[in-house]
Amino acid sequence: EGPFVYLSLVGNVANSDGLIASLWKEYGKADSRWLYLDPTIVSLEILTVVLDGLLALILIYAIVKEKYYRHFIQVTLCVCELYGGWMTFCPEWLIGSPNLNTDSWLYFWVYLVFFNGVWVLIPGLLLWQSWLELKKMHQKGTSVGKKSW
Fold it and tell me: Of 84, 86, 98, 146, which is most buried by a Cβ count within 10 Å?
């Protein structure tokens, strides 16, 4: 999303050249908000690049080094991703999806549903993983701390 934010802030994707611009132009066929500076989309993507990018780096470090705060960061990052997805599409749905190409099977099912669904599925699975790990840690902690009467 970094190149998208840059292209949006210095001009727009639709009038940009290069490989990255051509990828965003292709996605723009499914969701035209990605072609020009849509303030909601660009605002969310700035937050994604800065905050989620930093959290992703911290999470990688926490996983590799087996840090105690790994699941806190993982849950935070996943919630950020899910919230970002919601705020990307919910306002559009509320106004009747004028910027989404729902007539084309490819653009609707592949670009909009599948590609964006990955950004729901993966955070959802990682949230479930964190839930199970935190539950396991809690059960282990309470069994150690229990006193027999």
Answer: 84
Distance separating alpha carbons of residues 35 and 40, to the nearest angstrom = 13
> CA 75, CA 131: separation in Å to the nearest integer?
9
Q: Which among 127, 125, 130, 119 has a CA at the least distance from the CA of 44?
A: 119
pLDDT 10s digits, 97-128: 999 999 999 999 999 999 999 999 999 999 99
Residue with tokens 């990682």: 126
Q: What is the pLDDT of residue 59?
A: 98
CA–CA separation, 130 and 124 (whole Å) = 10
Report the alpha-carbon distance of residue 9 to residue 42 in Å, rounded: 8
Longest dimension (CA), the chain: 74
User: Taking the model in full, what pTM does it have?
Assistant: 0.89
- Rg of the chain in Å (alpha carbons): 20
11-43 burial, b at 16+ Cβ within 10 Å, e below that, comes to ebbeebeeeebeebbebbebbebbbbebeebbe
